[in-house]
Fold these 2 entries.
Entry 1:
Amino acid sequence: MIYSLNSNLLKTLNIRSLRISFWLQCVFILLLALAIFGPIMNLLIWTVTESWYFPHALPSQWGFKYWQQVFNPYSDVSGSLFTSLLIAVLTVVVCLIVSVPAGYALSKRSMPLRVFWMLLFLIPQAFPNLTVYMNIARLFYDFGLNGTLLGVILVHSVHGLMFSIWISVAAFSSTDPMLERASRNLGAGPFYTFFHIVLPQAAPGLIASCIFVFLESLDEFTGTFFVGSPNISTLPLLLYTASMEGNYQIASITALILLVPSILFMIIINKFMRPDMLSKLGK
Amino acid sequence: MRQTTSPNQLKNHLWLIAPAALMVGIFFLYPLCFSLYSAITLDSGEFTLAHLNKAFELYSKDILFTIIIVLISVAILAVLSITIAALITLSPFRSLSKTLGFLYRLPLFIPFIVTAQMMRTFLAKNGLMNNAFVASGLLTPMDTVSFLGWSGIIITFVWKQLAFSTLLISGAMAALDDSQIRAARNLGASRFRILFQIILPQIVPTLGVAMVLSIVTMMSVLSVPLMIGTGSPTMMTADMAFRINSYGDYHVANALGLVSYCICAGLAWFYLRQNLKEKGAN
């Protein structure tokens, strides 16, 4: 009797504490959502604001005036958008050309000094890179690469190399070596085997690495700031200039243009990139 | 079945890596070494500490400011990302942890410059945050303060890096052996106890990696201090850019760069030492 009373009491206590923790967690998630969506909301509001000043809580005049200004074919934004996309695509191409062979070679466990090479490609992400960028700018100045597309693409590629190599090593490691050997035994040459047997198996991973490099290049600010300016104006540089001039509408619309691919890829990649997969990276 | 490779093939493999290695060497390692060299030599090539002295003389306040900002941000980051990851792993409510798992990842790919622009308007005196406080009656319009400055920099760093560090940490938690947690639960351990005595000790290495990477990122971001940090003191990255763009003074800028490497190296060393100590104790 006493026992069952006790266990009943325990059960109610348990349920009550569960309920409290449920509501606590709900409040935490709500606060986090507010903290995440608040700044994004503010950005969205600024894109459709025509005038907004103290002490108005919300814009006093709404409208799409600045959108027309931005998407005018002669505006700075369309030019920068084109430059940014061109640089990003070419950076992806450079990274692919360099990292596909390297990733394939490093996926072989028997590769001598494999850990050393992997760490070498990690270095650009492991040092504060601002100092490096300003010295690259000085170096490029001597070769006339400052303010050229090629210079900016090179800087972006080195920055993206870590992603492309590490991800393509993972991609090539997951291919089946027996298929490769079967193809060779049946008389196919090494190049034929690579392009028809190995590459198709690694393609999904390589595409993921391209997405990473593309985003990194699209969003890169510091390197372009030192190497590209003032001749090359990418979207981040334009955003920065507009924001520093207090032109928040243009800055916010530019930011929104940069935000779209980021969120889009996040949602696409959300399916592939689970945390437990990430812990296998680099093994 | 092990794959055997002849020495000849290995040589071929080295050729495959060469372009990538050359790129890193020429466009990263060489400028890196050059910055170290330039920080401690005169134009004529003689060794000198004058640039370092000058850097400390002019910017010691900013160096201290940078260290404090980075440390506070990392501390907040660690607490928040452990909380979120623990909720995802341990929460008994599947739907809540699923929502949380989607929510925290949203800022993962949002670029720093966009975050800086968002925060520049959000945290301002007339920003949405203050307006929301005023509208809800928590503040009067006269009490509002602008968060642009050191607190704004910290908020921006945490907002942006939270997704990355939580992703790493919840990954480490998901990779843990599930049976340990279940055994502890069956023996009557509370969720808090499981977190502090079973999960946390095992994910310390990942936590360290996430924090060191976050520190390096914060030390190299230029857009946030330029756009959010108004006035003085400011972060070292802004000083370096100023030194170059206004004076063309590479020596002092590189000396500041050397200091920033040392800060990162110092924090990384601290982490490694803690790690070794714990391994030694066991």
Entry 2:
Amino acid sequence: MSLLDARGIAVRYPVRGGVLQRPTAWVRAVDGVDLTLDAGETLGLVGESGSGKSTLGRALIALRRPDAGTIRFAGDDILALDAAGLKALRRRMQIVFQDPNASLDPRRTVGGSVRMGLDLHAIGTGAERREAVAEMFRRVGLRPEHVTRFPHEFSGGQRQRIGIARALILNPELLVCDEAVSALDVSVQAQILNLLKDLQAERRLAMLFISHNLAVVEHMADRIAVMYAGRIVEEAKRDALFAAPRHPYTRALLSAVPTPDPTRRDPSPPPLGEPPDPANLPTGCRFRSRCPIAMPRCATEEPALAALAPGHKAACWAA
Amino acid sequence: MREAALLSVRGLAAHFVTRAGTLRAVDGVDLDLASGEVLGLVGESGCGKTVLALSLMRLVEPPGRLVAGSITFDGNDVTAMDTRTITRLRGRGMGMIFQQPRTSLDPVIRIGNQIAEPLISHAGMSRAAAAREAIALLEAVGIPGAEAKARAYPHELSGGQAQRVMIAIALALKPRLLIADEPTTSLDVTVQAQILALLRERCRALGTALILVTHDIGVVAQLADRVAVMYAGRIVEQGPVGDIFAAPAHPYTQGLLQSAPVLGRRRERLAAIEGNIPDLSRPIPGCAFAPRCDHRPTMGERCDREMPPALAVTPAHAARCWRLATP
């Protein structure tokens, strides 16, 4: 049994207009996604801005209640839980955001922010909590004597270490990393990626690693799902996806990454057109307005995410 | 020897003086650029690369100011120019594009008129001729339906289209130098690839030199002829793109090239550069990278005490590292 098993997840947002600000249309940010995640596994979720990957990440840990679908975590239907059940569940699933400032209260000491989870769930005595926070600080590469400092006294990389400490203090089983290293410079990004990998191995964490950066996802993930306009269009084990991508969108994404080798200049990319208006998606396949191999069928029928080989799925009539 | 430089910068320093202290954002930069050349200016946030780019056009705003050095562009001293001359230079000599294209466009003026404006005010074109040229320029930057798009307002453009329009405006007067500060950083990777190809093609077609400011070494590898690596307000290494990638001489450049994960070349662990960038509000007497440098323990105290000069690796390639000094 998978640790996380999500079926038919959908999240929609209203587009408001007119003087009354009534919903005039709906953006289907996530539109029927199935996903599983095993203990100790890292699933990479890639896609461009507006693809719905962050919304999906939040929906999976019930930070944003999905409008449709079911989510089972360790067998329990989490959308059926009452408030107390959901609170207990929060211990077991945590998130690290792109901007650690968004999850750190500027007026609270960083030690206080990290400790808050222990306080909320009334875990241990005061002395035990202090010791747990100090130990967590050491583990993420921070000095325990800095617990009394405030977020602004730290660099971006250090603040992300604090964000990781805050997320892991409750010893969760699932960690969602939403663009967790995207705001960091590469030299610091490497420090944080190494730290996340070590922590994952130590704790057998299941990790949903959301990023727009394909190289970072290749580095971190065991399995990868590619998202486009609210749907998963391809899903495969890491090496299979990069060696033999089956969806034309995955191929376009991969070929667009600049090769860091001046002796191998990439050919000019074929024109790909603009992403579709999320409130007004094309009929049939959502990618067809930008697809280099679109056929008449693509305009009338939406391809389902279908298995092509063991563990490799794609939603494309030509795959 | 290299041909006569289009741009020659010597000892340039731009400091920000505030009550809290002096921030040495750019602190002694030497830089040369030939006509039509593409220079990749790389470095991490806070290294001074944007302030350097703004300094070249004298666009640094108070409390920042140029405190030392010279900028020679096309034989003229930019630091000595009066306001009228520098304004003309910014239109006809140098163009600039930024990371957030939409914030550089006027939200209430149709984009065709924004492209036509410099053609009228700087090149003396008639209104009608400038309007026709604006449509031709929109076509040249790959905007479909250029005639209709010329009547659009900036908010009707996607991020990629807005950056195309910025490129059209910046290149309207065929400047000899375009400075592009992180032009694709806010764009998705598929759009980035299109914009980079466009920048390369337009600069080549017009013979315009390009300074591409970026933190992305992949972008540099794809576009640059020459690379300058910046750290803590100084250029720590400079040379032809092939040499910099094949044989980086400065430990910081080496670290930068190794710390980014590369698609298709997966390793279990990344070579991180430990530590953080130094505080630029305190004077750094020696090498600013020494506290993070793997070679510092074997090199000794000279690295902390004395700033290494730019030492030659080959005639066209130099780095500020004491390891290159012949004993």
